[in-house]
Amino acid sequence: MIGPDTNHFILQRLDAYTWKIPGEKFPVDPNSVQYLIQLLASLHVSQFVKDVVTPADLAANGLAKPWRQIILRSAAGDSNAIIAHLLFGNVDTNQVIVQRADENFIYAIAPEDYKKLPQLGAWQFRDRTIWNFSETNVAQVTVQQNGKTWQLIHHGPNHWSLGAGSGAINTPGVEETVHDLGHLYAYYEWMARGLSKPADYGFKPGNLSITVTLKDGQSQTVDFGLATGNTAVAAVTLDGERWVFLFPPDMYQLVSSYLVVQSSVP
Fold it and tell me: Over the stretch 134-166, which tens digit does the pLDDT of each residue have?
């Protein structure tokens, strides 16, 4: 169980490799949970702040009403099966105050260690797999950019033709790009759930948008926002919500080369 008072949630183990978050419908990424457990196991004390604390000490160090608490239990829902209960208090540039609930000591850990812990919410644990489909099931790809549309029709392996727009098709490049795009995932971690301020992430009219239509009529769309380094911020709609993530850099290089509207398209 992890989260500040305003963002309480539970990670519950179902089996050796499966987790769920009660109240959420999205699949949980087991690797993200395992990373959290490893982070907690590797936390080390940078300073012993005080051996015996009073209520006044707890208040002064932000532990009377901790900003964040993490409770590890050996059995779901069993309040007595506590492995560890960590309380996080004052946070500054030099240290973060921590206490174990079963001890009367106050410790400090390094801020960089604290920042590695999930800071935003349960949604950060969503499985980073976005969708999975084979290029053999793709009927067409529609690229929109700067008010222009470029549509590619898929007839079979390495066989593409123009459905809308004009320009040359790099058939092997398009085939490879669509193959990789069929296994899209959030690179590193999710950035946001919901998109109340699209401009904050560089989303605006005219940006690159790619829609893949499958032979069964289903469509998958990814929109691109702010370019950063060798990739860009992107967004998809999952379960009726907008999810923002960093597009995989290697896949972005393919998209930038083969699935952008060419300057010759009117």
Answer: 999 999 999 999 999 999 999 999 999 998 777
- The CA dihedral of 123, 127, 128, 130, to the nearest 10 degrees, is -100
The model's pTM? 0.86
User: How many Å apart are CA 252 and CA 259, to the nearest integer?
Assistant: 10
User: How many whole angstroms separate alpha carbon 148 and alpha carbon 248?
Assistant: 25
DSSP strand E in the chain: where? 2-3, 12-15, 18-20, 47-50, 68-73, 82-91, 96-100, 106-109, 138-145, 148-156, 159-164, 187-193, 209-214, 219-228, 231-238, 241-246
DSSP labels, 189-245: EEEEES-S-GGGGT--TT--EEEEEETTS-EEEEEEEEEETTEEEEEEEETTEEEEE
Residue with tokens 């196991």: 41
Q: Take residue 97 and report the two structure tokens written for it.
A: 């105050």
Task: Return the residue matching tokens 């948008």.
Answer: 209
Domain ranges of the chain: 2-125, 135-258
Do 49 and 108 touch, CB atoms closer than 8 A? Answer: yes
